[in-house]
Amino acid sequence: xxxxxxxxxxxxxxxxxxxxxxxxxxxxxxxxxxxxxxxxxxxxxxxxxxxxxxxxxxxxxxxxxxxxxxxxxxxxxxxxxxxxxxxxxxxxxxxxxxxxxxxxxxxxxxxxxxxxxxxxxxxxxxxxxxxxxxxxxxxxxxxxxxxxxxxxx
Length: 153
Prior knowledge:
The chain is α+β, with helices and mostly antiparallel strands. Helices cover 39% and strands 18% of the residues. It has 2 domains: 8-47, Arc Repressor Mutant, subunit A; 61-140, Alpha-Beta Plaits, CATH 3.30.70. Keywords: DNA-binding, Transcription, Transcription regulation.
């Protein structure tokens, strides 16, 4: 069920998504409020689960992680035991930035960030040694056109 948010909540969330390191005073000024009401709204949105956590975004290429692969996985296994083992393997791999279970011909899609193709192969070999997978297709992203963590408000 969607949280009940008013226009002020949405303005505050937009500011936090833009730069969560802003002071409460800065946010309050930008949204046309004062510090205490903004703090109360942020606390309420944290308590209700709208705000999950605050973090920092890093530049992958500056850290040597120049290759982004989208990995399409098809499996012939659909038992709970296999799925638990597969999900555990994904959670233990820091290279996996995102993982989604899909409807359609492809069962899972992963976003994997590594240094290069050789590092992807090391990831791939480790994954298939842990879990039986029917088919894996890796697509190398040539250019990131858009990437955002901001949700549309």
